[in-house]
Amino acid sequence: MLFNSFEFLLFLPLVFTLYWFVFNKALRNQNVLILVASYFFYGWWSWEFMLLLALSTLLDYLYGFYVASPNKIKSKIFLWLSIINNLGILGVFKYYNFFATQFQQGFERLGLHTNPVLLQIALPVGISFYTFHGMSYVFDIYRGHQKPVSNLVDYAVFVSFFPLLVAGPIERANHLLPQVQRKRSFNATQAIEGCRLILWGMFKKVVIADSLSLIVNEIIQNYQSYHALTLLCGVLGFSFQIYGDFSGYSDIALGTAKLFGFELLSNFKFPYFSRDIAEFWRRWHISLSSWFRDYLYIPLGGSKLGKIKAVRNTFIIFLVSGFWHGASWNFIIWGGIHAMGFLPLLLLNRNRQYVSDGVAQDRSWPSVKELIQMLSTFTFVSFAWIFFRIQQVDVALDYIKNMAMDALNHPEQFTQIPHGIRIVIYILPLIVLDWWFRKDERKLKITHSRLINYGMYVILATITIITYLNLIHQPSTFIYFQF
């Protein structure tokens, strides 16, 4: 079930009404309702994959008790069983065909012909997200940061809570489970904030991302017919398309959770206002970045074992992060590009210079230095997005080549209006509003005047509804559903 579908517009009010007005007498009843609603939400795509979700949940629930054993050998054995189980599920459904094809090509280079059996099944929606939920739970038990949960329903809600089930954010057990286990009371202020986030997320998805996708797809599919400036518009358009799409999903997820009394982890904090690549990754897909930091980078030694191992560990997490996004070389290259961008900051010990304060922290406008830093970082990130968007590596390279060569051969085009310039219509409002909201991504207020704020909400809602009804005939899926 898509957030931007008519089915969800019926599903959400129904579950909300039952949750607060029928099942509100007991916490157990509310959690059972959330669990049933979550499985219905997920099963809307496929009941077979719903069974896979249930199996993964049950296994990690059981592993947790054995990992908590005071017997260190037994604890480690079941930790590895959990890791093998979760990575095995990912390996079969997400990566098997990739590796089978790569081995086939490798053998053929040696003159050996093979005919591997490929799986003809769709990738289960959200599999990378809910397996990471289960793995983090077991890891935290092993480290002594989390105790096993005795109530299976509570644990299942943690794994499958429908707002975050298919595209995150990737929650931690010590953050979400206590909220699942304690009594929740309706909070009108929290619910209003949730509605604002849902509206803002829908606006970013429907008006910005879906509208930009029409332009971006047309440019990329016909890139050989366009001049460099138009190809540049395609890159710029996709940068904001994927931001509007994924951050829009996260806003809807956070807002929906608020309606039920839950506070989820932030997943985006205005990443395109970052002043270097390190800050970008502290602001983009935060839950995934922190997951790899805590469960891969630090266990590998982080940056405490010398520069050589720090460089090694940096490349590992960026390459693995790229591969997490998809079983394709373009995602690995995308991760490698970001590793190369992060490397100078690491070697110069400047990778943590922008940890606490955001850009123009106490000012209305950025300084010239900050503006140059943001534009440089955005340019680098946008270049990397080419490999994220175009799955065929040779096509991505050809796109870049055509853009560079045409810019050199036809410099006069930069004095003309390019095809695709209308992307500015969608990008500028997002940049302006993001700048106003940048100090608190959850409040979504541009002034202290309630009248002006609510006027803005009405405008956003009206534009979103009109766009949805007139431009998007079928609800488009979210980009990160494929991961």
From TrEMBL:
Pfam family, any one: MBOAT
Membrane-spanning segments: 6-23, 32-57, 77-96, 117-135, 155-174, 310-326, 419-437, 451-471
Signal peptide limits: none
Cell compartment(s), UniProt: Cell membrane
Record keywords, A-Z: Acyltransferase, Cell membrane, Membrane, Transferase, Transmembrane, Transmembrane helix
Membrane topology value: Multi-pass membrane protein
Keyword field contains Cell wall biogenesis/degradation: no
Domain of life, source organism: Bacteria
Signal recorded as keyword: no
UniProt family annotation: Belongs to the membrane-bound acyltransferase family.
Listed name of the protein: MBOAT family protein
Organism of origin: Aquirufa aurantiipilula
